[in-house]
């Protein structure tokens, strides 16, 4: 992509309305713009990040055996009346009437709709287990939308719903999502910690929140320090095999959110030097709630003995749009964002320091083409800005590598490669620089 043709309206000043660094940087780097309180447009740079996050979530859901579909944002109020949640959900739910005065709502979550789809289509135990997911916008009329995409009113969520014949089967479905989540967040460069959590309006009695430790997080959390460096299962993990030992390793040490925190247990189970009490960002939340929706909505399948069985359900959410902010909270410096390769909007910032100078233009174009042929995503700064402004913009938007081409270096046959994270710079021939970038990027694209 040529910067001269791109749409990157970066801001030089820090917007006053943004309280936390990720919100400030997302506005400044032209990732998002606010449309109304808690409602955002995703500008081209931000949208590239959102799609990469979404794709990692999708790949790990698919790997764990979940099946993607797409449900609408608008739902009929009738199914929410059947589950009993239409009144219970309160003011957070955005209620709408169509021209026929039928009650609709903008979905804050999809337990009812997926249960209805299941009820109309699945009749036999032979079709179980199933786990269906979608990645779709949600709306919750939060009392205090804040921190940009972290607590929005409209936000992108991945939500999966499992159906099993037995409670034991449902536990296995829960465990598969648990493991998929560990991998999902690790691939984005995040250290997530599963913590015992409250179930709120979704219900049920078993749930874990996946938490990223960050000072700006909205949740107060408590855990054993060893969990921060817990081991994440590799890509070849067998989801049909025994996941018990992995779940045990992650759940046998103390970890709880504020609502579930038990100070006495914390002190008894965790040595003082290992006690972590910190703020955290909830990036995912998984629930087992048995027949809470299948029962009142009359979803049943025929069991092996001919009797009708009400399926056991769980639901599993990931805050896809929130993750964009969470990754920035975890990875930035004074100059701007520092993207991990796996979610970076582009992988290389190619900076032409002297646009209009024939030798520099030719060298930059040749490098641009070679990188693109190798499948690398490059943003070429071909504008006539000052060098200082070019560096500042590229540091701000945080692409993992910068490749700097200028007339002075070229005279010595050299260009410069800068690693955005470490700040390390090396001068190399254009060819060596291209090869080095291809190798570094390919090795960093997958983190686990
Ligand atoms: N139906 C269940 C699981 S599919 C559910 O809705 N769970 S949830 O309420 O915990 O939301 C799932 C995830 O969405 C949360 O872990 C969080 O990462 C994200 N999320 C929730 N509310 C917001 C919000 N207002 N803004 C941004 N992300 C949010």
Q: Could you please describe the fold and organization of this structure?
A:
32% of the residues lie in helices and 27% in strands. It is α+β, with helices and mostly antiparallel strands and 448 residues long. Strands 3, 7, 8, 9, 10, 11, 12, 13 and 16 form a 9-stranded mixed β-sheet that branches. The chain has a 5-stranded mixed β-sheet with strand order 20-19-21-22-23, with helices on both faces. Helix 10 (358-373) links the parallel strand 19 and strand 20. Helix 10 (358-373) packs parallel to helix 13. The longest helix is centred in the middle third of the chain and has 21 residues, at 167-187. The structure holds 5'-O-(N-(L-cysteinyl)-sulfamoyl)adenosine. Residues 109, 111, 140, 142, 151-152, 155, 157, 159, 202, 282-285, 287, 315-317, 319, 321-322 line the site of 5'-O-(N-(L-cysteinyl)-sulfamoyl)adenosine (5CA).
Which key terms come to mind for this protein?
13 helices; globular; five-stranded mixed sheet; 27% strand; alpha+beta; 448 residues; single chain; binds 5'-O-(N-(L-cysteinyl)-sulfamoyl)adenosine; 32% helix; nine-stranded mixed sheet
